[in-house]
Amino acid sequence: MKGYSVVPVDKMEGNVVDRISNQWMLVTAGDGEKCDTMTASWGGIGFVWGTPAATVYIRPQRYTREFIDARERLTLSFMGEEFRQALTYCGSHSGRNEDKIANAGLSVGLTPEGTPFIEGAELVMECRKLYRDRFGPAEFLDKTLIDVWYPEQDFHYIYICAIERIYVRIPEQ
């Protein structure tokens, strides 16, 4: 990918909790013909089944989920603060009804594997799906979370994904 270098997963810098919860990320899936992205502030990075992994949570009604389910890979694009307005737009509009990516002022690139990502990202994680499940009311040990986070009973799908590659944008000289 032009303008990016590959960094080993165990050498990734920065506070991952802050990246996800405060800086947000764009979850992107599809192919070179058609893709969608969505803003996410729920997720995690860790180690499971012998591999570095990312966990993302997607509500069932999100259009991006259709692309995630249809493909083996997805990307997590972490953008700089200058993209805050675009991130807000992508979190409040649906690609089902418009060209959300273009309307947010963003453009799509492809990794060498052909996985779409959002150009200009400071950091891109290319991930391969390993597992999918869905939260259910019976599994909540703290039932108060259901009323707070799921008044419509639209429980998130959980995707555990192997982090295959991390791309870090090379600063312009």
UniProtKB/TrEMBL annotation:
Coiled coil: none annotated. GO terms for molecular function: FMN binding; oxidoreductase activity, acting on the CH-NH group of donors, NAD or NADP as acceptor. SUPFAM superfamilies: FMN-binding split barrel. Residues 19-168 form the Flavin reductase like domain. It comes from the Bacteria. InterPro entries: Flavin_Rdtase-like_dom, Flavoredoxin, Split_barrel_FMN-bd. Belongs to the flavoredoxin family. This is Flavin reductase family protein. It comes from Candidatus Tidjanibacter faecipullorum.
